[in-house]
Amino acid sequence: MFKYYISAVFISSVMLSGCGSKDEEKEVKTRSWYKNHPEERKAVIKACQDNPGVKDPNCVNAWLED
Q1: Which of 38, 33, 28 is nearest to 59 (CA)?
Q2: What is the DSSP string of 12-52?
Q3: Dihedral (C-alpha) 43, 45, 47, 51: value to the nearest 10 degrees?
Q4: How far is Cα 14 from Cα 2, in angstroms, rounded to an integer?
C-alpha cells in the first residue's frame, strides 16, 4: 500500500511541475502605467494586434487606456 502512495505522490508532483508557464512571469502593467508611457502602450497594442489569439492582461490594459 505504501508503494502506491509513494507512486501517486511522485506522479502528481511530476504532472504539476509542468503547470507553470513563462507568460506568468511577465509583469502586468496597470492602465495608469500605460497612460504615462504612450510609446510602450503603442508597442504593446501593435504586438497584441499581430497575435490576437493570446490572452494577455497587458493587451487589455493598453487597449482600455485611451
Answers
A1: 28
A2: HHHHHTT---GGGGSPPPPHHHHHH-HHHHHHHHHHHHH-T
A3: 180
A4: 18
Residue 58 C-alpha cell reads as 497587458
pLDDT value at position 51?
86
Q: Which residues of the chain have pLDDT under 50?
A: none
pLDDT score of 22: 57
What is the pLDDT, as a whole number, of residue 63? 87
Q: Where are the domains of the chain?
A: 29-66
Give the Cα separation of 13 and 51 in Å (integer): 33
